[in-house]
Amino acid sequence: MAEKLVLFAMAMAMTMMVLISASAEVPTIFIFGDSTADVGTNNFLPHSKFRANFPHNGIDFPHARPTGRFSNGLNSADFLAKLLGHKRSPPPFLSLIKSSAGVKKHSFRGISFASGGSGLLDLTGQRMPTMMKFGAERVPTDDLHSNLTNVIPLTEQRKQFKAVHGHLMAALGKSEAKKFLSKSLVFISTASNDIFEYYHSGSTMPKETFISTLGLAYEKHLKALLNLGARKFGIISVPPIGCCPSQRIYNSTGGCLEILNEYARAFHASIESLLCKLSSEYKDMKYSLGNTFEMTINVLNNPFLFNFTDVQTACCGAGRFNAQSICDPKANLCSNRNQNLFWDLFHPTQAASNLAAVTLYGGEPRFVSPINFAQLAAA
Ligand SMILES: *[C@@H]1O[C@H](CO)[C@@H](O)[C@H](O)[C@H]1NC(C)=O
Ligand SMILES: *[C@@H]1O[C@H](CO)[C@@H](O)[C@H](O)[C@H]1NC(C)=O
Ligand SMILES: *[C@@H]1O[C@H](CO)[C@@H](O)[C@H](O)[C@H]1NC(C)=O
């Protein structure tokens, strides 16, 4: 009897091990988008105005190292990657190209192409948006359009991914590379910067035209990725960007700049129908759409539920809402960084980024649909 129990226990243990090793399979992740996911891409653009590789950024990163992340520590891409079994976000493509072995090796684990300041449109971030013009950071007008090294636009991010695709084809052969890419996760977090620039440039383009321009651009990017073999997409939509500290300064009452939130909502609706359409054209496509708008509004309405005591002011900055300067060594720093929703004038703190990632990963359909990122990874 005792012997049987031991055997049974051993069989159980072995079953458990199989289950654990199956669930411990770490998926390959490719990350595209803007500063919400940038883990140091722009450090490799010497003339970029969108950089964060200086203190107080990184103050809560191991060894208090500023890495280029627009955060006191990790960002949402890092936390998502951690939830999926990685140490943190995969490294920037531009950090790997100094050796040909670098890109090859990481093609199998994951690479980040995300670049702060970029958007869906090629010109986004290449001109200095009005709201980023502070003092010495102001760019002379003759610099407009003349210098395309400020950010890596999504089109260029896709070209870099194409190089990765080439490595995989060479290493695995066509059909295995296709299989490999179809299992990899593609995360994209973009479009906030397009909306900021559209609004603050005083464009006369009607809102509907602008939103459909963004939708068409997204469709073009997604189709290009699909045609290279990507099949699993984690899409992160635009949060209520009118509630960023940098935008509250445009509202005399200190409330959110509502018009920007309306653009964010309209954008979400257009991407939702785009993804639905694409998944009927590409039968094996799977996606999760993260509704960071709903997620953030929920936190703004119930800050204490999430242990935030300040959801309006930037932790690091200066001036009204700490939002009239970027986060640099001269900026003020809040006393409890875990209790602020915003790190700087645009970006969430590490604590808020963690909350966002946990919600994208395991959240209910109100926040991420039709499936969450955990289900996407398992699909
Ligand atoms: C971009 O701007 C920087 C400084 O503003 C300048 O040194 C560099 O030559 C410019 N590059 C191009 C391609 O114009
Ligand atoms: C400013 O914020 C208030 C709430 O405090 C809001 O009712 C109003 O619509 C906002 N104004 C603009 C221009 O967004
Ligand atoms: C808030 O803080 C309390 C006490 O430190 C903790 O038990 C709780 O899990 C926290 N809630 C969240 C959402 O982080």
UniProtKB/TrEMBL annotation:
Belongs to the 'GDSL' lipolytic enzyme family. One of its GO terms (biological process) is lipid catabolic process. Keywords: Hydrolase, Lipid degradation, Lipid metabolism, Signal. Gene3D superfamilies: SGNH hydrolase. Pfam families: Lipase_GDSL. GO terms for molecular function: hydrolase activity, acting on ester bonds. Residues 1-24 form the signal peptide. This is GDSL esterase/lipase.
